[in-house]
């Protein structure tokens, strides 16, 4: 009886270890070179942030999450997005960027097109007309910026990281353009 309990515990531990390995492969993949097919991400309510500002500071790390999911800017104003990479993984495995797109553009479609746009730092040229602003890729401990003029029309404009697999992992948010008072 004791021998059977030991075998059961050992089998149970092996099953958990195997499940952990499979989960790790599903979450992180075997390499950063090829995107994995994924279903559309679940959109969560944005985190609250401070009032409108011409310098929009945001960061992202190795957890594939932006620290803010909502950025606010006044319509038609000059603004700057400043993206800081707080992680430690090398840039070829865990680079980040921000691509702000028109409100009616589907971020999933942009992310899928970006996966094959390695030569343009994963910014898909076929969406050039729908892209409002984008940063270059940034690696650990670095900051990139992009200056742009916010759209004149108030509304919610999606932003996302287009490095392969990051949008599918949840790296997205909203640039909220508000009317000038």
From TrEMBL:
Residues 57-177 form the Blue (type 1) copper domain. One of its GO terms (molecular function) is copper ion binding. InterPro entries: BlueCu_1, BlueCu_1_BS, Cu-binding_ET, Cu_oxidase_CS, Cupredoxin. The keyword Transport applies. It holds the Pfam family Copper-bind. Keywords: Copper, Electron transport, Metal-binding, Transport. PANTHER family: AURACYANIN-B, OUTER MEMBRANE PROTEIN H.8. This is Plastocyanin/azurin family copper-binding protein. It comes from Rubellicoccus peritrichatus.
